[in-house]
Amino acid sequence: MDTIVAYIGLDWGDERHSVHLQTAEGAIEHVEVEQKPAVLHEWIAQLQQRFGAGKIALALEQRKGAVVHALLMYDFFVLYPINPKALARYREAFQTSGAKDDPLDSELLLDLVVRHRDRLRAWVPDTVESRKLQLFCEQRRKLVNHRVALTNRLTSLLKQYFPQALEWVGDVASVQACDFLTQWPTLAALQRTRPSTVRRFYQAHNCRTASVIEARLAAIVTARPLTNDPAIVEPLSLAVQTYATQLHVLIGAIHTFDDRIAQAFAAHADHDVFASFPGAGDVCAPRLAAAFGTDRSRWHSASELQSHSGIAPVTERSGKSLWVHHRLACPKFVKQTFHEFADQSIRFSQWARAYYDQQRGRGNDHHAALRSLAYKWIRILFRCWKDRKPYDEGQYLDALRRRGSPLVKNFA
After folding, report:
1. Are residues 275 and 397 in the same domain?
2. Is the domain of 275 the same as that of 396?
3. Is residue 257 domain-shared with residue 161, that is, in the same domain?
4. Which parts of 270-365 fold into alpha helices (H)?
5. Which residue range(s) make up the domain with 391?
6. Dist. CA 412–CA 131, nearest whole Å
7. Are 176 and 170 in contact (CB under 8 A)?
8. How far is Cα 5 from Cα 17, in angstroms, rounded to an integer?
9. Using the 8-state DSSP alphabet, how is residue 223 labeled?
10. Which of 144, 158, 364, 383 has the most other CB atoms within 10 Å of its CB?
């Protein structure tokens, strides 16, 4: 293990960070550091000058954020991210009243890293390329969630005053829909437009099936408004135009992220491994690579990743009571990645479809069946990742047949 010359517990804040420091001799100090880049780097430089070439063990509650981004620039820190729930339980052991304060938390973080460092796992940052891919994937997913929220909002607004538009715009989450609603946010505005103009609009957006266009044009002419009340139509139509403009920008941003992710994943060391899995595709394959990382020492067994991701079931037992459920406190994006990959795999993998059908036949609902399938996929993903070997569906099916797996009789 590294020679530690000092220990730090840091409770971060938006404006100030509470810091407790203990030297190797046991002296404890408390300071507050402003969340300003110049102040933060000056404090770090003072630590480096004071303790020389030794390592400093630093415990904090987060793996990402402004403070972590600054600390990653210095290799003399050994970072120990502490789960907020773990810190809360540790606090409750000494503060049964539920009292909480930043200096108290930084002191408890210091106590944790001093007394229990051998039971904590130091965080070793992955390569720049891998961390970049991970953040690209996470931010893209947030944009997709925002797109879903905007399309739901647009749908809700249109149903209140212009429901016919939902039939004429095509996919609400498309550029065509955004342009349609920006140009014609009301039925009255659309009916004042010449049919030839509307026809050219559809053709310009690659909607060129003549029968579809003519049917829509005929429906537009004969359509009756749900309401003509200006107190409803004017505010809601302005809101629709606003959301449509936002959605248009968002769609373009997601395409940009897709391009950057494709470039980053193409250069990733494990591209061939994760691209080989059935159903991974352009979206899930980079996310799987980001979930595993490139450091083979990070995960010693598939069960570690199954538990970390929240895919592994959690058993709670007390007396005669027994409750098995899926884990709630876990990295949501990682869990979502395995869950969504399992969902895609049943469309492309013969054994995955058979296993999913088996789980549904046992009475499990859709998501429970997918979690169970993801649990099995993680074992396969882990072995391919460890061996740096692409997945071979035929080889796995042959192995199932040799073992006499009950899944074989369900193969389509």
Report:
1. yes
2. yes
3. yes
4. 271-275, 281-292, 302-309, 332-345, 350-361
5. 271-410
6. 40
7. yes
8. 21
9. -
10. 158
Tell me: the pLDDT tens digits for 37-51?
Answer: 899 899 999 998 998
DSSP state at residue 33: E
Nearest to 291 by CA among 266, 313, 314, 265: 265
90 burial level (CB within 10 Å; 0-12, 13-18, 19+): middle
Distance CA 221, CA 192 (A): 10
Cβ proximity of 106 and 73 under 8 Å: no
Confidence of residue 92 (pLDDT cuts 50, 70, 90): confident
Residues 227 and 327 reside in one and the same domain? no
Please report, as a single letter, which amino acid is at residue 300: H
Contact 169, 176 (CB under 8 A): yes
Whether residue 169 contacts residue 222, with contact meaning beta carbons closer than 8 Å, is answered with no
The confidence band for 156, taking pLDDT boundaries of 50, 70 and 90, is very high
**Backbone phi and psi for residue 4, each to the nearest 5 degrees, phi listed first:** -95, 125
Same domain as 170, residue 301? no
Q: Which residue has the tokens 């505005």?
A: 189
Start-to-end Cα distance in the chain? 53
pLDDT tens, residue by residue, 254-296: 999 999 999 999 999 999 999 999 999 999 999 999 999 998 8
Residue 337 phi/psi, 5-degree rounding, is -60, -50
The continuous run of DSSP H or E covering 181 comes out as helix 175-183
Domain finish residue from 125, 159, 177: 125
pLDDT for 268 equals 94
pLDDT tens, residue by residue, 304-328: 889 888 888 766 666 666 666 666 6
Q: 328 and 260, same structural domain?
A: no
Please give the tally of structural domains in the chain. Answer: 3
Dist CA 38 CA 56 (whole Å): 21
Long-range contacts of 313-319 (CB under 8 A, 24+ apart): 313/371
- Residues 213 and 102 placed together within one structural domain of the fold: no
